């Protein structure tokens, strides 16, 4: 899936007051953004590329 513009999926961690969002970039890469780490207000938690046949 390669959207024409960046798409975001927003979620909430059950049992916590924190949320996250996942960006799907136009090149097909995915970046997961999570809650703060130390003094960084929002930090990337991981990324990856998935190929769909």
- What is the strand arrangement across the widest sheet? 1-2-3-4
Low-confidence stretches: none
Structural class: mainly beta
Taken together, the total number of domains comes to 1
**Number of E strands:** 4
Average the pLDDT over all residues and give the rounded result.
Answer: 74
What level of helicity do the residues show? under 10%
What is the strand content?
Answer: over 45%
Radius of gyration: 13 Å
Distance between the termini: 10 Å
Question: What do these coordinates show?
Answer:
- The structure is a single chain.
- This protein has 53 residues and is an all-beta fold.
- It has one domain (7-49).
- Helix content is 0%, strand content 47%.
- The protein has no helices and four strands.
- It has strands at 7-12, 19-24, 29-34, 43-49.
- The protein has a four-stranded antiparallel β-sheet with strand order 1-2-3-4, with no helix packed on it.
- The chain starts with 6 loop residues before the first strand and ends with a strand.
- The mean pLDDT is 74.
Write the layout of secondary structure elements.
Layout: E1 7-12, E2 19-24, E3 29-34, E4 43-49
Antiparallel strand pairs: 1-2, 2-3, 3-4
Pfam families: Caudo_bapla_RBP (PF08931)
Keywords: Host-virus interaction
Subcellular location: Virion
Keywords summarizing the entry:
mainly beta, Adenovirus_pIV-like_att, elongated, 53 residues, host-virus interaction, four-stranded antiparallel sheet, 4 strands, 47% strand, Receptor-binding protein of phage tail base-plate Siphoviridae head domain-containing protein
